[in-house]
Known about the structure:
Elements: H1 3-23, E1 26-27, H2 28-37, H3 45-57, E2 61-68, E3 71-79, H4 81-105
Antiparallel strand pairs: 1-3, 2-3
Helix pairs in contact: 1-4, 2-3
Amino acid sequence: MGKQMTEMLKGTLEGIVLAILAGRPAYGYEITARLREQGFVDIAEGTVYALLVRIEQRGLVDVAKVPSEKGPPRKVYTLNAQGRDDLEEFWRTWGFLAERLEQLHEGGR
């Protein structure tokens, strides 16, 4: 992954993870796997886990511990109402930026 992609992801990864959770609840490794399925192959699990801690602390997700067949219980993250609001704001901001970038790309028309 190039430096430019890494820098852009820093500002958008939270919104991407919230969008994944909007589809259905998930645990950390599952979120990482979904990111990789979407082409974000260079994102480290540690990055995702640190982000999950932050969004939990900010109250954007509800967390439940569920038993795991392979070790300790898993923390399953579910997007809550505050998280949905945050995701809606992310999409509005993304739409604004995407429109402006497309205008610049087309020569300022």
